Fold this sequence. Notes:
Layout (H helix, E strand, L loop, with lengths): L4 E6 L2 E6 L12 E4 L2 E5 L3 E8 L4 H12 L9 E3 L3 E6 L2 E7 L6 H9 L3 E5 L4 E8 L2 H8 L12 E6 L2 E9 L2 E7 L3 H14 L2
Antiparallel strand pairs: 1-2, 3-4, 4-10, 5-8, 5-9, 6-7, 7-8, 10-13, 11-12, 12-13
Amino acid sequence: MSRPISLTLKENVCVHDLVAITALGGTEPRVDSLGGVTCTETPEVALASVAARMGQEINATKALAKLIDAPAPEVGRWAGTTVTAFWVGQDQWMAEAPFDSHEDLAAQVKATVEDAASVTEQTDAWARFDLSGEGIKAVLELLCQLDLRKFDEGSAARCSIHHVGCFVLCRSPEMVSLYGPRSSAGSLHHAIVTAMRSVQ
């Protein structure tokens, strides 16, 4: 979560009063449940982009596989254990991990891939919402144009939701994660909740 700073003047000393907020502006993650589907704002995730450098594609792929303890994801897939990664483009991935244990994920990724890939901190650039429940496919049908017949566990896709470029990851038959730009978190959340109301 981002940590905005407010300043208070006490006895001529500037004191920092740090307050952590989510992408939707709350001090606690937002949770909405409608018609058997739950949408949970999931802020405690560390993210880092990984882009193989020219001529280093094989080395970058091997290094990423070592980092996530699984083969590097191919087109339209995600994989991993504690640290996971999903495919975002040719020889490009997004690494994700729990924020509490991997606050410095970008540095950890860089230490593993070394000069084989370019790594960029992405934690505060994206907002994540997890959809769970038996009715998530009906919600997704209203949100995006994914072929849900082929969208199974381990799938990852880039698509547009409410005119916002997003990533959608199928964690299990009853859980899907949606990543959208943090700056559009409110619009994305509104679109999700509207779709949830529509399928009740």
